[in-house]
Amino acid sequence: CSSNCPSYCGCIRKELTSVPQDLPATITSLQLQHHHITSLNQYDFSKYAKLRKLILSINRISIVNKQTFSNLTELKTLDLSDNKLTYIQPCTFSALSQLNDLKISDNRITNIDPGTFSNLPELFHLRSCCNRLTRILSGTFTDLPKLDRLDLSLPTLKEIDLERNLLTSIHPDTFSDLPKLILLPLKGNPWHCDCTMTHVRKGNGTITIRDVTAADAGQYICTATNPGGSTSDKLFVEVHTPTPVMPGVPTALVETSDVMTGEALYLECEASGTPKPDITVTLPSGLNATVESGGRVTVRENGTIAIKDVTAADAGQYICIATNQ
Fold it and tell me: Which UniProt keywords are listed (predicted)?
């Protein structure tokens, strides 16, 4: 980075391992992208109190001292995305009373404690998508009165507690990027129950789990609460993994040599599996027959092939194919 840069300093792809300390104290914008910085210390930005924009994306930052940003009271934009953060200490951002935009996406954060976003009265946009969060506790977003956009996109998140906040409405697609979400307490918010909230008001308590895996098996507890009290009930979910089709040994109920023209011929295709496999039979003519097929050649649910009014054209090889999903 040039020590003579004006109010804006752009230091990109310089392989820095720490925050440079030879920049003008008057800079208001600092970009430190694509470096090898691994930690942020208490005094890294003490000289740059005039900063309004600080970009630290695409580094290797795994540790942030909770006093790192303590003197950046004019900062409006902070980007910590694409690093190796696993945890952010509560009050790390509490001195940033003018912060509008905070990006912590594309890290390895597993837990966000209440107080992490304390004293951010001007925060408008919080981007925390593409982390490894599985739970967000009540009070996490309590001190964000102006928050307008919250980007989560957390495919592993199972629980988010939004009780006793200042939420007035929820857009139908708010949680569309949370396929594993199973618990979402919302009580104690000042809801505006107009037509925009019909998707919530008409809820019937149905839990939808997309792309089910074996990890979704287990006990689910449903709790219903109103001013008169609360009640709960349990349900257990078993996840069955499909088993491969096991072929049987095809057998003929009558010898083909004994079948006369005009008689009926029955052949068996045996197969088992979970789910129950579907049987398809390839005839000597090259055509396929299934349970849904009609006509002179039919396939029954148990795999039996029935051929009515046998002709010389029915002689040849029959191939049984069993499939399941």
Answer: Disulfide bond, Glycoprotein, Leucine-rich repeat, Repeat, Signal
